[in-house]
Amino acid sequence: MPVLRAAPADLPDSLRNVIEYRKSGLSLNHVVGCPLDCGYCVRHLFQNFDMKQPHLVVSDREAVDLLVNHWAFRPDATPIQIFNRATDPFLPGVKEHLVATLELLDDRGLKNSVLVITRWKIEPDDVERLERLKNLRVTILVTWSGIEDARVEPVDSAHAKNSLRVLHDNASRTKAILYWRPLIAGLNDSDNHIDRALVLSEYADATVFTGLFHREEIRKHLREAGVTDLYPEIARRKILPAEIEGRVTNAFAGKPLFRKTSCGVAYAHGIADYNGRFGVREICDICPRPQVDRCTRTHLKPDVARVQELAALAQLKTDHISIDDRRIELSGSTEQQRYFIQHTLNYQVHDRSHPHLHGRHGRAEVGWE
Question: Which runs of consecutive H residues, i.e. helices, occur in the chain?
């Protein structure tokens, strides 16, 4: 295995902690550093964008031990992400740690869903190694945007096209998602871009589309690179204007297209959405009928006592919990606390301080006025 340098002693605490609970599951990130320089990368939010060389924070075995002993981990149930925060999992050297980590988890007989997001090159040998896994449900989300402005995204989108074809021709157990992101108004939302995405979707088990995190750190970086503001506002949630949403869903009518990552992953593996989004029915209006049926069967309204029990495990103190057919609503929670409850119950969990508006699909209000 190629040897990565050890992470420096002054690595920010946000990256020194290799496990974080995110919307798509427990996120394991024991390799940090990436040379791909995508202008909108979330690494800007972790003070890590200038680390171009991948570094190892802890060994693969130690990382796996930390993961399976994490207070929120549930064997065969908790969704897992690997290397989705501070590097690309298929970079040379990094992918050796990706496969080793997957093998360590698989050797424990775990059947958890594992998400791997990449915009780099996947080779037939990589797929062959992934196909040897016997227990984990692995999904490769191949990021494609079609953005041609190298200041925003220097990585050639042809890599994603080739990776999807390699997966299509060589994978069986391993599922592939066309991860169409970030869709940005006026940059890569033309009819030509949509037509290209339609062609690429034929090589994937499902397509997921989403917008741009336009945080202050990302806007600052792009301004310094000479890019005119992609949107006039910054936002806590991803921006995807209604007009783009409508054109994409119309173009993909009848195809397996999803607004949310976990929905596409669930469809690819023939299981119900582990984020319980069936309660927010307007999200599901583009889902294939078989997927709606799966989610219908698992949509069970929990009782307050069970939510309180899970809140206590997550060290969440909340004095008022309300539950309806759409979601659980509580107060004073962090994202990690909410997602733990959400994945355990397969039921949406919202905080009153961040309401989800009807029809916005959990996105920013920009472009929906």
Answer: 13-16, 60-68, 94-107, 124-131, 158-170, 191-201, 216-224, 242-251, 261-269, 289-298, 304-313, 335-345
